[in-house]
Records
---
Amino acid sequence: MLLLFGATLGLAAFRLIWGPLDFIAALSPALPPAIYLTGLSLLSGRLTRSYWVAAGVTMIYWFLEIQTRGQVTGALYLFNTAWPSLFVSISFNQGLQIGLGLLFFAINIALSTGRHNSLSRRSFLGR
């Protein structure tokens, strides 16, 4: 929800300053990396139970991507739409980022609901 709110606020500011713009064309290059990094941040925060680690993992990943220009991550290169790779198509790159980001979201939800179910069963059984 915060990601959607931030994107809407940014697009509203763009529209105010520069006039009308194509919503899809403006958002499509940034959305797959945002979904991937958000999923990565949520999952690393869930696994470590530290928002500092979650923020650190995301920022270090982003910084290394800028510095190495995808040499380390290959097909998961975050900035493939801005600086295209000769070896990975943009559509495959974006699909991989969205797929892994959604997988991270799903794992995070599964870990969250699994913990709540075991706690509710424990309290229901009186243990």
Note: The CA atoms of residues 70 and 77 lie 5 Å apart.
---
Amino acid sequence: MNTRLRFLAILMFVILVTSGCSEKQKPVQPDTPANTAWLMKLAIDQGNYERFKELFADGRKDVITKEQFQAMKDLTTSGTSYVHYELAKFENGTMLLIRLTPEKDKGGKYYIEDVKKIPNELKSVFEP
């Protein structure tokens, strides 16, 4: 019985030590399109305009006013999905919107799910 108690005590000690030594989780960084979009939503949900602006490229940080930012809070919901698109702009003015798979496959590749031609009346949406 004494051996059993000793074994249980050692086992519990090992479990506590190993669970406490697990690697700390790193904060999400804007290092992928999905992470950047998620961090943007988090900043909106938290009402953190400064953090929101940090996610923008230099020279574009003030493209969304604080009032527009506040209005975005009313648009977001807890259920959110993210879709990855790439825009192809050709010299002749044609634009194609390419929808990509949300995740890379096991080989590290993205695949096309759909392609749509952007109508002339919507092209201004895609211009900075």
Note: The helical segments are 2-20, 33-46, 49-54, 66-73.
